[in-house]
Design goal:
- The protein has 337 residues and is α/β, with parallel strands linked by helices.
- The strands form three sheets. It has an eight-stranded parallel β-barrel, surrounded by seven helices.
- Helix 3 packs parallel to helix 4, helix 3 packs parallel to helix 11 and helix 6 crosses helix 7.
- The radius of gyration is 21 Å and the shape is elongated.
- The structure holds phosphoenolpyruvate and manganese (II) ion (MN).
- The site of phosphoenolpyruvate (PEP) has 10 residues, from loops.
């Protein structure tokens, strides 16, 4: 259920509604909008009796929300959300490109790639310090040392850092260094991790699980918002199909599908979505054309020696070419890059 407040309702009126909802044993989440505040109500098992609420001062309307997801839904908030990572806005007019290596391997490697992607026009820097690897014998990431290297890359380039949080144990440590916490595809339904990042004061980039439906994807985002963290950016990164010409199948139709039902911004990751370097540029163009709010691209200056995901990493000069093409395309889409 959603309580829509009158545009003239003041903070005291909003507080009183929240207190009343909490006295009913339910959870109230204020959602500030451009014109007015709405208050999402969650935690109810059945329908909520609105009589005690509808006559409170400042209450304009009480709307039942029919979708299983509430706070992420356009029924709750119709205007598109803009999420700020560092100073970078995602979901606004500008198409946002984040780039960097799959994994932080060394200071030299990370700083070199950070400089190159910054020069080409990336506005976010990505790189994993804690890596989710299929095999326990593969490179697992540099951990805390990797986070410190990422902080150096930010200090030098000014680019805000997006890095993965792999588990609840290291979440706070990662949040100390990162500007944005990435929850990876394999963790999309790690509900304790979702709750944890929902309580941390950092924007979250939530990747779609490789076999997740749109409803499951949005319900995972709902976990984060339900804990009070509204700064969630979704990311389509490819799903598993029978196709063997590609590592994953980048499900571009997920982007308009999500935008139809959710106000949250959504990016595309054509690197993991294809797994092959030569497919990253064409699928990046396609993602911009279907309306993605941004791209996440893996770049490596020596991909043949990369410790993870070398085959999908663009060379820095290929990334610069991608940025040029994306800039031209973004104008067609009524955006800038
Ligand atoms: C990554 O971004 O390097 C990564 C592991 O992504 P995903 O969770 O989408 O596989
Ligand atoms: Mn990767």
């Amino acid at each position: 259920m959603l309580i829509v407040m009158d545009s003239r309702a003041d903070a005291a009126a909003v507080r009183r509604v929240i207190e009343t909802v909490e006295q009913m044993g339910l959870k109230a989440t204020p959602i500030p909008g451009a014109q007015r505040v709405a208050i999402g109500i969650t935690g109810n098992r059945g329908t909520v009796d609105p009589t005690g609420l509808e006559n409170l001062p400042g209450v304009l309307e009480i709307i039942p929300v029919s979708a299983p997801y509430k706070l992420v839904s356009r029924e709750t908030k119709n205007e598109r959300s803009v999420v700020r990572i560092g100073g970078v806005e995602i979901g606004g007019e500008r198409l946002v490109v984040g780039a960097g290596p799959c994994a932080v391997e060394s200071e030299e490697q990370t700083l070199e790639i950070a400089r190159r992607v910054k020069a080409a026009g990336a506005v976010l820097f990505r790189g994993g310090a804690y890596k989710p690897r299929t095999s326990p014998y593969s490179f697992q990431g540099l951990g805390l040392a990797g986070l410190k290297i990422l902080a150096k890359a930010r200090a030098e380039t000014g680019l805000p850092i997006v890095t993965e949080v792999l588990d609840t144990e290291t979440a706070e440590e990662v949040a100390e260094y990162a500007d944005c916490l990435q929850v990876g595809a394999r963790n999309m339904q790690n509900f304790s991790l979702l709750k944890k990042v929902g309580r941390l004061k950092r924007p979250v980039l939530l990747k779609r699980g490789m076999s997740a439906t749109i409803e499951e994807f949005l319900l995972s985002a709902e976990y984060i918002l339900a804990e009070g963290n509204y700064d969630v950016v979704l990311c389509e990164r490819g799903v598993r199909t029978f196709a063997d010409h590609t590592r994953n199948t980048l499900d571009l139709s997920a982007i308009p599908a999500v935008q139809r039902i959710s106000h949250l911004p959504i990016m595309a990751d054509p690197s993991h979505g294809t797994g092959k370097r030569h497919k990253v540029l064409p699928l990046s163009r396609a993602a911009v054309a279907v309306g993605a709010d941004g791209l996440l691209i893996e770049v490596h200056h020596k991909p043949e020696t990369a410790l993870s995901d070398g085959p999908q990493a663009l060379l820095p000069e290929q990334f610069a070419d991608l940025m040029n093409q994306i800039r031209a395309l973004s104008i067609v889409m009524g955006r800038s890059a």
